[in-house]
Write a structure and sequence with these properties.
About 55% of the residues lie in helices and about 10% in strands. The protein is α+β, with helices and mostly antiparallel strands. Helix 22 packs across helix 45, helix 43 packs antiparallel against helix 46 and helix 45 runs antiparallel to helix 46.
């Protein structure tokens, strides 16, 4: 015993903690006030200080040299004091500074020659003179200093003293007065006249684990790179991120620049038309005015924000980025000033546009000199096409100058010559490749889905499993009392019911499937760290789950808990397995005081080797059934939420089965729409039976089968390549391929219908094969561009390391590519065959059944009786016709010559000229010289002369030959002209720029993660469990600090790198982690306990020969002789470490090394191969918490001087979120890059390709903003959807761009846009947008929240945004910037014979 005291004193002296005090540092009243040899009897006695020679050597005089002169204690008293200090060493010994300060206090109370000045008896037994009550007077500085040095000390598994006793008054009262064997009433008085001495700060002798002042500053949020959504920024009394302010200013600056620039353009335009404004002086003055206006509008807000408003008396202050504050009224004034200026500029610009348009229309009418007549009628350019069609059908291929059109025309002719052979080849290829599905493997392991095999978490998990075994399986109950307003849950009846429930679950058994005589019990599966039984973590462990012990504390359950809380390592308070009961783990719903807990938490831990997984899952199913039964029992006093290791997997499987009907209905709606929409029902046929002929339901169904074949081919190829499928692939790929493939079907069929018409010169209709070849030559390049862009975009997505995304990219790329090939081969043949069926008036779906009659109603010519209408007027016009015959013939000849010289492509692409259309020419237009006479001639007709009846009849009868639809008429007559109107352009540009800046702002705020509750069915029992877990649990998931490398822990310098006891490095591994965010303090360290075990009397004993022994005769020698450093000898450390790891705690030694058996793994030579330290994360309630916890642990491990890594079961699932932003950006950029290069190769126009990519990119940015506003998190599913969004968006853009480029060269930009809208607008709207929209709407009725959020909401957003950008923004951009100046198509153009 003396040796221990000597060790303590020597250690403290060497640590330079003890500071020798000069004599009389605190008071000048000499005298003693009490005397006693035993702690149970101390009498009041006033006497002078004793001679110091009676004090035991090496006791109080080591800290107080003045006691060597005189003191109030004798030899026996110091021996008692020494014994008490040894007891205290087990509690406060891990912080030597605290021990020195306490030793100072206790020595002063017993030995100080000035005792009577601060130890004042207040109650004395008159008979025995025993002191009953006494005042201990302390100086507040000394009291607070001692408290601060001990507040973070924790021992025996208890909480730090500062948590149990928040103030110094409570600390002295709770620790020294509550249970005091000497004084019944020990009152602590804080007064400046009380005892005072220097305090040793805890930072000088304690580790971070026991002293917050010794901790190094934790890493900042910025250093770790945490997702910090807790720091709010306030602007104008609302929470607005700083980025929003910059986006608003950027938009205002854009508006200013746009309106100022437009105003300058108008000034120069009108200055040349209005004589008053033609002078240079006017231009200079207006430029100066606009310049000053622009500078003022830009600089005033920025200049004023540089000055902080003085006084700060305003009720509203606006916090700026630089921490300054701006008066809200002044801020609003500046904002209103800017907005008013913008409004005035906008009004001026709009007024100028209206005036300019009115003037242009008036000039046009004056030049033409007419307001009606035949020129105002629609001139159908298909007449020009049909006039020349008969002469060009045989050599039409020679009229396509573009190499891609020539190739597609040649391919269309060849592929449709033998349709049956082509169909058989496609079928055989599909079946042959589809055989590979036999080897299809579906990956269900979440770790292998989201974690790359070469990722950090996968490598570290493999190391952990190899050395320490797989992480155990967890079954957990959260029990909430049904009775509300309970004062406390530490209720006898609740504890009794809880013990009963736990015993029922612990006694469950399940028969083995292959042997009914063998049963599986909890003992066969459970985790047994101490080899004394199954570990079930529960508050009932403080009673060892013994009802008789509970009965003995029936009236004071909470009192027993409070007693155990302060001595968790006491055998009486431990679980029956010898494991301490941690209140943070077994109680929930409390923050500072565990006695205020609201719920019980019971956790079963099972071993998880691969050989036991099947057995564990069988037992877990029985466990789940039993919990369900108990929970549904009305007599149960708890609301129970629960979770087993297999629960998530079971519920996900159940969710997948529940969503199958929804998916089928979604696909069926799209199937039905496609099949019905391909038919031609406008204009309506006169005969009802013609509906059955004009329907193309079978063709639509065939197109769907082709989509299915492409999926079969994709799955077959990927199966052959051993690329495993996933749940996302099975749910997304069919929808994706169908959504992408359907538009090609619509475009092919609609274009074919418009071209497959009779020639205007009376020739017969072209063959279906020839019409399809022309169709493929016209739209083939754009279809190829869309499909190849999508396929390459998905293929580049496979460059990411996330397995689920990589697999999806392969499956999607192959499926889209082969869907395109099948459409231009198999579907082409089916379209030709179906057209022949229609021409022979055979019933759709029943081609063997033929209807009588001819096909006259297929064209529905409303002018069949035009001869009768015109005969009555023919005689009146004969003279006029004869007079103008020569002129007409000459004009017709000129017109035919002109048409002969025109490119066939230009003839086919000629738009419908409508009266009132803008005929402005751009830079690429031909330079025609118009005069009045020329304007009065339209295609050889002199508008001043009355047309002949024969010409009227001819022209009127030709109109219906151009097949059209009502939707196409709307796009041609109304939507196209609306888009190219100057006011529309201006407003559209402003709107989309505003939306883009708005989206950039919110894209940065897109949340990250995937909430577990979202991935589960709404009616799952796990929904309640995860809700209660987030609300009540007070500790997060367990984590381990794993040490790699060959460290010799017997060497003190190595120990100091990891330990937390006195003398350890402040920046040791455990100290660093203990002080980090998202990691719960109090890391369990076998090294710390081993060092304390080696220095604690009664823990390690041996025989005289050094052999370890326990509770045997002759076993009375200390294992570890005292070392000057306070650390055991390295050889003895190695020798007795196995003994420590098998040691069970006792009353004399509360340190149980048996609990650490699994934390240390040895090599064959006895050296440590691998070790770990046990810790817990703090409560992680949100996805950001989990991601931040992972980022913190990785950061600490990476910046540690030791070779360590951290491991927790959730790291594998959340590691991807550390780089999910980079993965998403990389995938999107790769997809956009592939879109650009494929567009460039096929469109051969860099500028138009850039505009297409710009629209697609803006669509994705807007989609990210929608995700943020709709609270859709960024995760693997949404990354797949974002990449898919690129593929779908290109569908809405590429056809418009391709048609714009293929339009006649002499058209202006506006005319090209109207032509593109007329040709492709209706196809895109009906074939792409409506189809996808119908499929998305059905998904809204899903029972799964993940389907609603990530499929319905995201798919709907993709469709709407892509449609808006493709049908609104892109045409406007093309009308402004579209040009062929940078096209390199001329280098691949074939010269035509004149």
């Amino acid at each position: 015993m003396n040796k221990i005291l000597v060790y303590i004193i020597i250690f403290l002296s060497i640590s330079k903690i003890i500071k020798c005090q000069s004599p009389y540092p605190y008071n000048t009243t000499i005298g003693c006030s009490m005397y006693g040899v035993t702690s149970s009897f101390v009498e009041a006695k006033d006497f002078p200080p004793l001679n110091n020679t009676e004090i035991a050597p090496n006791t109080c005089q080591l800290t107080h040299p003045e006691y060597s002169i005189e003191s109030c204690c004798n030899y026996n008293q110091t021996l008692i004091l020494q014994t008490n200090m040894l007891i205290a060493g087990g509690i406060f010994g891990r912080c030597s500074s605290c021990m020195v300060n306490l030793y100072n206090l206790w020595c002063a109370s017993s030995c100080s020659p000035y005792q009577k000045s601060f130890m004042v008896p207040t109650k004395v037994d008159s008979k025995t003179n025993q002191i009953i009550g006494i005042d201990f007077i302390l100086h507040p500085d000394f009291a607070n200093g001692l408290y601060n040095s001990c507040r973070d000390v924790h021992a025996n598994g208890a909480q730090p003293f500062g948590v149990m006793f928040p103030t110094s008054q409570l600390f002295f009262t709770g620790v020294f007065s509550a249970v005091n064997p000497t004084f019944k009433e020990l009152n602590w008085v804080f007064n400046t006249d009380g005892y005072n001495d220097e305090i040793v700060p805890c930072s000088e002798g304690c580790s971070c684990d026991q002293c917050r002042d010794a901790c190094l500053p934790p890493p900042s949020y910025k250093d770790i790179g945490l997702l910090n959504d807790t720091i709010t920024q306030t602007h104008l009394l609302i929470e607005v991120p700083h980025l929003t302010i910059w986006m608003v200013w950027s938009f205002l600056l854009f508006l200013l620049s746009l309106l100022i620039g437009f105003s300058i353009w108008l000034i120069f335009k009108y200055s040349s038309k209005i004589r008053y404004f033609k002078g240079k002086k006017f231009k200079v003055v207006m430029m100066i005015i606009l310049g000053i206006l622009f500078i003022c509008m830009v600089l005033i807000p920025f200049v004023t924000t540089k000055h902080v408003m003085e006084g700060k008396t305003a009720s509203c202050m606006w916090k700026l980025d630089d921490a300054n504050e701006w008066n809200c009224s002044f801020a609003m004034g500046v904002s209103i000033y800017v907005m008013i200026t913008l409004l005035l500029l906008s009004i001026v610009v709009l007024a100028c546009i209206v005036v300019d348009k009115t003037t242009s229309n008036r000039n046009s009418r004056r030049i033409l000199g007419i307001s009606g007549g035949i020129i105002n009628q629609q001139v159908n350019n298909d007449e020009i096409q049909n006039n020349n069609l008969g002469n060009n059908n045989n050599n039409i291929n020679n009229n396509y100058s573009n190499i891609f059109q020539k190739v597609f025309y040649w391919y269309g002719i060849k592929i449709t010559k033998r349709p049956i052979i082509v169909l058989l080849c496609c079928l055989v290829f599909t079946v042959g490749i589809g055989i590979g599905i036999i080897s299809l493997e579906i990956e269900t392991d979440p770790v292998k889905l989201w974690v790359s095999p070469d990722s950090r978490s996968a490598i570290e998990k493999k190391y952990f499993d190899e050395h320490f075994g797989p992480f155990y399986r967890v079954e957990q109950l959260i029990l909430i009392p049904k009775q509300k307003n309970l004062p406390t849950i530490f209720n006898y009846d609740l504890f009794k019911s809880l013990i009963d429930i736990e015993n029922q679950l612990m006694n469950l058994s399940v028969p083995v499937r292959d042997d009914s005589n063998t049963v599986i019990t909890l003992d066969d599966l459970c985790f047994q760290p101490t080899k004394r039984g199954c570990l079930v973590e529960s508050i009932t462990g403080i009673f060892q789950r013994d009802e008789s012990k509970l009965d003995s504390n029936k009236d004071d359950v909470i009192g027993w808990f409070e007693q155990c809380k302060s001595q968790l390592l006491s055998p009486e308070c431990m679980d029956s397995t010898g494991v301490p009961v941690n209140p943070k783990i077994v109680l929930g719903g409390w923050s500072d005081n565990s006695t205020l807990a609201k719920v019980f938490v019971t956790t079963f831990l099972l071993n998880n080797p691969d050989s036991m997984v099947d057995s564990a899952m069988l037992w877990e199913q029985v466990w789940l059934n039993k919990v369900q039964e108990i929970s549904n029992d009305p007599s149960c006093p708890f609301k129970i939420s629960f979770n087993a290791q297999r629960s998530v997997q079971d519920e996900l499987a159940r969710e997948g089965n529940a969503d199958i009907p929804t998916i089928i209905v979604s696909y069926f709606v799209m199937f039905l729409y496609i099949s019905l929409s391909l038919g031609s029902y406008y204009p309506f046929p006169r005969r009802f039976t013609s509906f059955f002929v004009r329907s193309r339901f079978a063709l639509g169904l065939s197109g769907i089968c082709i989509v299915a074949c492409s999926i079969v081919i994709s799955v077959g190829i990927c199966s052959i390549l051993r690329i495993k499928a996933t749940l996302i692939i099975s749910e997304v790929i069919p929808f994706l391929v169908l959504a992408i493939g359907v538009d090609n079907i619509f475009i092919l069929v609609n274009t074919f219908e418009s071209l497959h018409v009779a020639a205007s010169n009376g020739n017969q209709m072209p063959t279906p094969e020839e019409s399809f070849a022309r169709t493929l030559a016209k739209v083939g390049p754009s279809i190829a561009l869309a499909s190849l862009s999508e396929s390459f975009a998905f293929l580049l997505g496979s460059l990411t390391k996330m397995p689920a995304v990589k697999a999806f990219s392969f499956y999607a790329s192959i499926a889209v590519f082969f869907d395109f090939l099948l459409q231009i081969s198999a579907f082409a043949c089916l379209l030709v065959l179906d057209t022949k069926r229609l021409q022979s008036r055979r019933v759709d779906c029943l081609p063997c059944l033929s209807l009588n009659g001819d096909n006259s109603d297929l064209e529905d010519d409303p002018f069949d009786n035009i001869d009768q209408q015109l005969n009555s007027n023919s005689n009146n016009n004969n003279n006029n016709n004869n007079n103008n015959n020569n002129n007409n013939n000459n004009n017709n000849n000129n017109n035919l010559n002109y048409n002969d010289n025109r490119n066939q492509e230009e003839i086919e692409n000629e738009p419908l000229l409508i009266n009132g259309e803008d005929d402005d020419r751009n830079d690429n237009a031909h330079n025609y010289n118009y005069d009045v006479d020329a304007l009065n001639v339209v295609d050889g007709l002199n508008i001043n002369e009355e047309p002949s009846p024969s010409f009227k009849k001819k022209s009127l009868k030709k109109k219906p030959k151009k097949k059209t639809t009502l939707l196409k008429e709307l796009f041609t007559k109304y939507y196209g002209p609306f888009l190219v109107h100057p006011i529309s352009k201006l407003l559209i540009i402003i709107f989309f720029v505003a939306m883009f800046l708005f989206s950039i702002n919110f894209a940065y705020q897109t949340p990250i993660g995937l909430d577990q509750k979202v991935a589960l069915p709404k009616n799952s029992y796990l929904q309640a469990y995860f809700t209660n877990m987030n609300e009540f649990l007070e500790v997060g998931p367990p984590m381990y600090i794993v040490v790699k490398g060959n460290y010799d822990f017997s060497i003190p310098s190595v120990q100091n790198q990891f330990c937390t006891v006195g003398g350890c490095n402040n920046n040791s591994v455990i100290n660093t982690f203990d002080n980090a965010p998202f990691i719960s303090p109090g890391i369990s360290s076998w090294l710390d306990d081993m060092l304390q075990w080696s220095n604690t009397v009664g823990c390690c004993n041996s025989f005289d020969n050094g052999t370890y022994c326990y509770n045997e005769p002759g076993c009375d020698q200390q294992c570890f002789p005292l070392e000057k450093s306070g650390r055991p000898d390295p050889s003895l450390f190695k020798k007795y470490l196995p003994a420590f790891l098998n040691f069970t705690n006792t009353d004399q030694c509360p340190l149980a090394g048996l609990a650490y058996t699994g934390d240390v793994k040895f090599n064959s030579d006895g050296s440590i191969a691998a070790t770990r330290f046990d810790a817990y994360h703090t409560t992680l309630r949100t996805q950001n918490d989990f991601i931040n916890a992972l980022a913190t642990s990785y950061y600490l491990a990476d910046h540690s001087d030791a070779q360590v890594f951290t491991y927790s079961i959730f790291y594998c699932y959340f590691e991807a979120y550390l780089t999910i932003k980079e993965v998403a950006i990389k995938g999107i950029l790769l997809a956009l890059g592939s879109v650009f290069f494929v567009s460039l190769a096929i469109l051969m126009n860099p500028l138009v390709s850039l505009l297409v990519v710009l629209c697609v990119g803006m669509t994705i940015v807007d989609l990210l903003a929608v995700m943020s506003l709709w609270d859709i998190s960024l995760n693997a599913i949404s990354v797949v959807n974002l990449i898919m969004g690129v593929g779908i968006s290109i569908e809405f853009c590429v056809h418009i761009a391709s048609t714009f480029i293929r339009s006649p060269n002499h058209y202006s930009r506006d005319q090209k846009v109207k032509f593109a809208i007329s040709e492709m607008g209706a196809n895109i709207f009906s074939g792409i947008f409506i189809t996808k929209l119908l499929g998305c709407v059905v998904l809204a009725f899903s029972k799964s929240e993940i389907f609603i959020i990530y499929y319905f909401k995201m798919y709907m957003s993709i469709c709407l945004l892509a449609a808006v950008h493709g049908l609104v923004l892109l045409p406007v951009l093309l009308s402004i910037f579209g040009t062929n100046k940078f096209s390199f198509e001329k280098y691949l153009t074939f010269k035509k014979d004149n």
